[in-house]
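Renewal narrative, Specific Aim 1. Our central claim is that a sequence can be written position by position from structural information alone. The example that follows is taken directly from our test logs and has not been curated for this report. It begins with the structure tokens describing the chain, in the order in which they were read.
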């Protein structure tokens, strides 16, 4: 990579070279950042030949343990792969003390293609199919999350200001500014860190649970950049919350009695003229939209582990009435309350 001919890369190299240290990471199949701290003398490697990361780092379970059935960690001796930085991800970590830089990494094969377990590689292959068909996906992303009290012990999850039982009364302020103002310092820092990373946000709003918020990333025709932005901002939200003594959770249903959280992806497909092919008449959408929905339904069984995965907190210290969850259709919906 010739950095001298690219002022943007030269600026990124300068940022990395001047940092106290560099936090470099890949994103595994669970969406978890995994990586290492590097000295700044590794800056050229991050933008050149790459640094070594175990290939199995992509295929860990949610607790960070090797998945034996994956056949990578043990069957092949857990070989390393070379990872290079995604240039636009190289920014200062605004929430960290000192001058610390971050770099999102991708793992490359010898032929230059992305490693098959790299989530960015999966998206790259999908986008190549769209391009071959003369189409461009245009996306918008909404992230929902709760800010919870990190001082709670054991398995308790409670909003800030809750009593010992985790109850915070009826203090829900959906689409109200009161909840936003209560967390203003934290939310402002999150938004400032997003701006520093060139992550363009459109809205921030309080949602239907205590300490629950939703942020919207700007609609874009650059699906890869948008996916990177959503991943990096999720990481930002968690780190800023931690700095302020809170935990940010994106769990689908952390509370049985309050609204769940999700990540909504709004998608259009544009042809070469920039027209959305899903648009039909006022009475009926275009056939392409129904075909797209049919494809989603057809492939849904293969994606249910991703869509419906939910950690089941089991603690021996729970009262007997709290050890057995209530389930509908195999999904955990709530823990029964003790009498």
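The sequence written for that structure reads:
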């Amino acid at each position: 990579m010739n950095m001298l001919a690219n002022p943007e890369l030269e600026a990124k190299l300068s940022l990395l070279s001047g940092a106290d240290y560099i936090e470099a990471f890949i994103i595994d199949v669970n969406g978890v950042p995994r990586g290492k701290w590097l000295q700044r003398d590794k800056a050229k490697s991050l933008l050149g030949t790459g640094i070594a990361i175990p290939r199995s780092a992509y295929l860990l379970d949610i607790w960070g343990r090797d998945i034996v059935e994956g056949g990578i960690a043990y069957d092949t001796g857990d070989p390393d792969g070379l990872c290079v930085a995604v240039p636009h991800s190289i920014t200062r970590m605004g929430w960290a003390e000192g001058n610390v830089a971050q770099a999102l990494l991708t793992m490359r094969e010898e032929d230059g293609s992305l490693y098959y377990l790299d989530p960015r590689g999966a998206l790259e292959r999908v986008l190549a199919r769209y391009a071959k068909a003369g189409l461009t996906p245009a996306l918008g992303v909404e992230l929902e999350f709760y800010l919870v009290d990190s001082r709670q012990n054991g398995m308790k999850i409670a909003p800030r200001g809750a009593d010992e039982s985790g109850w915070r009364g009826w203090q829900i302020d959906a689409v109200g500014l009161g909840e936003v103002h209560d967390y203003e310092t934290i939310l402002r820092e999150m938004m400032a860190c997003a701006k520093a990373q060139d992550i363009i946000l459109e809205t921030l709003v309080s949602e239907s649970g205590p300490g629950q918020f939703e942020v919207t990333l700007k609609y874009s025709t650059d699906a890869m950049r948008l996916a990177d932005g959503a991943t990096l901002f999720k990481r930002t939200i968690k780190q800023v919350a931690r700095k302020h003594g809170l935990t940010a959770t994106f769990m689908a249903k952390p509370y049985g009695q309050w609204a769940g959280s999700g990540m909504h992806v709004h998608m259009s497909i544009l042809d070469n003229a920039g027209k959305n092919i899903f648009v039909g008449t006022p009475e009926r959408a275009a056939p392409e939209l129904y075909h797209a929905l049919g494809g989603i339904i057809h492939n849904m069984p293969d994606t249910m582990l991703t869509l419906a995965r939910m950690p089941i907190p089991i603690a021996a210290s729970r009262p007997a009435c709290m050890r057995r969850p209530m389930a509908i259709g195999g999904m955990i919906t709530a823990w029964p309350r003790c009498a």
